[in-house]
Amino acid sequence: MSVDPRTPVIIGVAQITIGREQRPAPEPLLGWEQVCKEALADAGVDPAMATQIDTVLVADVMSWRYDYPLARLAERLGATPRHMAMGKPSGTSGQTMLDEAAAAIRDGTADIALVCGGESLATMRDYRKAGSMPPWSHVHPEGPEYAFDLDEVQHPGEVAIGLTEGIGAVYGFAMRDVARRAHMGVVPDAYRSALGETLAGMTRVAATNPHAWFRQARDAAFLTEPRLDNRMVAYPYTKHMVAIIDVDIYAALIVVSQKWADAHGIAAEKRVYPWTSCYAEDPVFIGVRDKLWKSDAMEAASKAALTAAGVTMDDIRHVDLYSCFASAVNFGRDALGIAHRGGDEVTVTGGLPYAGGPASSYMITSITRMVEILRGDSGSIGLISGVGMMMSNHIYGLYSTTPPPIVLVHPDHAAVQALVDAIPQRMIEDDYVGPAVVATYTIMHDNLGNPSHGAAICDLPGGARSYVRIIDSALLAWAEREEMVGRSVTIGAGGTTGVITAVY
Length: 504
What we know:
The chain is of the alpha+beta class. About 30% of the residues lie in helices and about 20% in strands.
């Protein structure tokens, strides 16, 4: 089959995972350099070819704030790239950077692009526990600490009920699983069991992934039952059910044109083609979304990507759904119509809780692993997804060892987003007092696993919504045993936000 010489193709991938027994890990900059050279070696070219890289894209990094991270990496590689850019802090970043590299390859502004990222967060945690800071290089003039503030992008009501405090996004994701559970009409214990079975399947994949942070299969009960070493974090999630971000993991991929690959003798079995992708956003504020149990942006973006490629999910053999929390997996399965696929059928890495989630770099690890899987199953198609922020940013990408179909027309992202934006939104009413109905909720827990307070989104009589707190200890315990969604409640004044004072 004739292939356009400007067709982008991934020729080399690599991942480095530094386990507990190998720590301290190198600082992120050195991890990026090493994994880039390993990706070049994987392609079968001399790592000295790093000097020819003309596009450098690096994921946002949390472990260390460098002064000029892109320039520092280019310097270590001996490269003088025409274009360099940092990815945005998001779980979608790996695919969006790959898309940027592929576009540059297609339009002729790049010949060899590097997409890389990674974190040394586990090593940073070790230093902090010891009361010190690592002796890493090129610190930012304002200091090495990461500067992103989740409060700045969330609704004041979400901040007031604690959805951004502590480990942040977990609470909003937990609320979504509760909303989905109620929509499906599944009782809480049965739904928790189903979550456990999904996640247990993912651990089985992680056990076979040589790059995974935790390479051990677990059963559902081990993951979901609260105990001293598995405290409840945000109902219905325990510690072993949520993403682990404190990892030392780096990944990189090399993208070139078909012409470049031919000219440099890249073996056919090394080539994996990024077919297409689509990105879309749900509203940032959780409460304004009419259907809290689904993602309109997931549905729109995934449908657009599949339609552009002329395939359906029946044609997709390998899948990696973003899996920071179980709701991301569940919403992703629902959007794609693959709710019947188990946990071991929706990830190639093992997922963020078990393979490890190096912040905004996870999708680079999922792409690199997908490339490895596809190389071993020539002709098959793989789909990966990314989720960013409080489950508002979504992206889907398709890959294969077969070049993309000639008839492929990439999705019109603006048109896809317009479809999502046209969906009516709920108004948010602050300082509401009176009757309401619970739309969704979660119960937050402290570092000992004890409930601290609850957060709920309630439907108001006029169709608006309000963010409220749950503070009564008896009600907190009851809400973890019974279904609270759909219950009529009374909201009373409670300082910065309303408080549920009675349930009917």
